Amino acid sequence: MMERATIKINTMPNNNEIYICGFNMSSLTPNWKLGVSIAGIFILYICFGALQEAIFSANDLRSYSPFLTLYQFGIYSVLSFLELRAHGYQLFNPWIHLYALVAVLTLGSIALSNASVGFLNYPTQVIFKCCKMIPVLLGGVLIQGRRYSIYEVLAVLLMTLGLICFTLVDVSIQPKFTLFGVFLVSLALCCDGALGNFQEIIMKNYVRSNSEILFYSYSLGFCLLASVLTISGNLFPSFYFFNDHALQTYGYGFIFSLSGYFGVQFVLCLVHSHGALTAVTVTTFRKAVSIAVSFIMFEKPFSQGYIWSGLLIVFGLYLNLYNKNRLSWNAAILNKLKSCRLVKSDAKSILTA
């Protein structure tokens, strides 16, 4: 049994303060926060996706993708450490074994996701990553013994059906499609599902900050991956390969890593200032734009089946969001219907139960 921590965190910024790149966003008006967050999410994540695909398209990086992940984790470790130091946060690590487990799952998620780009059509990888709820739900059942509502089960079924349809379209028209790529991205999703549950356990039982969890995840993951590459004899061959293609690896990889790290900060800012519905809407539309950019920048065949399959997944995402907010959503819908005189003013929502 885990003992509940009694140490409280007083050195991190106030919960009402939002920092991005060291700048306090709390003084901005809601409209400015919305505009800055949306701009940051679109610019950084579209850049992130384009660079990730460019790195694998420009070089045969399949054998060296773990070194890209090592480079990415090194940058993330430095950035998260600087963020902690900027806030005057004192690291506390009596539960290093738990952080090591989270680091392994974080490493598995990112490393497998990076590796899958070498074997999969990039839009397919994005679609699979949209369906993180599937392993999270399964992990919640297996790890925490949770029970889920009919809405959440239906959402997972819709996402699963959308994934199957999208994959079948990919098989029929994409020359790059391989089942090994699907296997890699599926394993990455499983790591994501377990990771979210273990992070939740740590934050609930030990009252630790998200910044500390991220720092230990990246730094321990970096040490673990460096050890594996050294023992396997792949560290120096990967290093020499990256040196021979410095611009496409170190150069693109640096901007790719910065985009991924700070993109998360803008998403958190949007969730904090405007709620989950706005954040999901923006990030879903951003993923659609990323897929469109991929088809434009990197020539590949297209089918309308991608659109219908993607819509199934989007419906699943919003069904899950509706389940989490159905009382407030039903009340808002009822008020709107009343204002339009489509229902009687004394009517009550039949979905509030």
UniProtKB/TrEMBL annotation:
Keywords: Membrane, Transmembrane, Transmembrane helix, Transport. One of its GO terms (cellular component) is endoplasmic reticulum membrane. The chain crosses the membrane at residues 34-52, 64-84, 96-120, 126-143, 150-171, 177-195, 215-237, 249-270, 277-298, 304-322. It is a multi-pass membrane protein. InterPro entries: SCL35B1-4/HUT1. GO terms for molecular function: 3'-phosphoadenosine 5'-phosphosulfate transmembrane transporter activity. It is found in: Membrane. Belongs to the nucleotide-sugar transporter family. SLC35B subfamily. This is Adenosine 3'-phospho 5'-phosphosulfate transporter 2. It comes from Schistosoma rodhaini.
